[in-house]
Amino acid sequence: MTLDALRLQVPDVLKESEVPLANLAGLLEEARRHPQDSALQQILCLLFDLNRSHLTLLERQRVLQSLNEEFRFYAATHLNGKPPPLFVKLCDEMACGFKRLLLQILQGHQPSRPHLAWCLYMAQSFLAQSALRNYELYQEPPPALWRDSHLLYWIGDHQKCLDEPVAAAFRPTPANTLRGLYQQTLLLALSNPFHLDEGACTTLFGALAPLAGLARLMPWDADDENGGPTVDLTESQPCLPFDQQPDGARTYLRRLELGALLVALHEHAPLRSDTEQQLLEKVRPNWLGQQQRRHPRIEHTGAGSLAVGLHAIHADLLSKHPVRCTVNLIDASPGGARLLCNSDQGGQLKVGQLVLLHNQGSPTLALVRWHYHNAEGLHLGLRYLKGLARPVWLRRAPNAQTHPGILQSTPEPGAGWHHGLWLPHKQFVEGENLWLQLASVHNQAILALPVTNLATSMVARYPLQMA
Questions:
Q1: Which residue from 104, 95, 170 is spatially nearest to 131, judged by alpha carbons?
Q2: 247 backbone dihedrals φ, ψ, rounded to 5°
Q3: Left (φ > 0), alpha (ψ -120 to 50) or beta: where does 192 sit?
Q4: Using CA atoms, how far apart are residues 320 and 323, in angstroms rounded to an integer?
Q5: Residues 435, 400: Cα–Cα separation, whole Å
Q6: How high does pLDDT run on average in the chain?
Q7: Scanning 57, 148, 173, 352, which has its CA 20 to 30 A from the CA of 121?
Q8: Coil, strand or helix: which one is 367?
Q9: pTM for this structure?
Q10: Pairing relation of β-strands 388-395 and 15-16?
Q11: pLDDT-derived band at 194, boundaries 50, 70, 90
């Protein structure tokens, strides 16, 4: 999938507009004087024509801004009841208009990030409105809606627009960034909306607005045992079924990490009503499948410590006693744990950081999957990495400068050992020849660095075949 190959679904531009743009404001005002169904039909016909007509970027943007005001006017009458089918079609046509505008912006010369972020957000907003209105009518959104939503996220990620704040006066309230809005829509779809009472989808969508941005789409890894929803950005569905093994290209697979969101769900939120809290608690198990996680977590209290970062772990394994962070274990499972530590340690304990947990027994290698600040301190979600961690040195030549690495070795019954070499992200490149030396061995082994099989923004793991 590339941005050229996977195109947004937009209607073809067939003709010059039959709608006189100078008279558009008058036509919209005239439509408001008619009964609701008739007015929606007139607005929809105008928009249908304009979406299939040749307009300059500025003309299309002004038209869509005017029609956005009309959308908000008609939406206000459907906040507490089922929307008519014509209103759902209006959501779809508004999304088409902003997708067409987005293509014109992308084809222009160096679009500004705020302008691009605004257009991406508005296109996603109307796709989210369409999904919400379909669920309110207890019907599935069209598959193309999810394909376009994934592509808007992909474009936003590559254009670094995911976290650009956008102010938009929609009801119910959406998240204020493209990342938050996209994940707000995914979470709505994961909430088993067809089992909700009438009107509950609207309440739930609004309740998700301040929470959805806390989730993160992480690179997918087959060994991940935390069991979050899997998103295939090339598929025409929000997420893959929990019992389906992904078969798409890893480049476009993501795991929806919900750890920080689930912690925030239990935070005191004065603006969250009791109804919203009860609804969020009701749908929460659906986000992680019928069984909330692959390994049930149990409450676990106890003190521990973390060696943070590859260099500190390397020194720790060599008994050089580096400075460790003191942590408290909150709960744990065979696949990971939740910790609590001081808020001022957030600077080094970033998402994707490699850590070594000392608690009871042998130290455990782990990755930081999420973190979340509240009045108690910094909450951390760890994903355990199976196997024995050993310190190694890497050189680019037999007598060159040494670089620390961590060798993760996992026994495989009947197949010997699987090895993974942890190194700083992008310090070395695929195919580079390196000399590897274990701490207890004087000889060096020559290896060609393979393609990484797990990477974060801070570290990468390379699979090794060793005798």
A1: 95
A2: -125, 10
A3: left
A4: 10
A5: 9
A6: 88
A7: 352
A8: strand
A9: 0.77
A10: unpaired
A11: confident
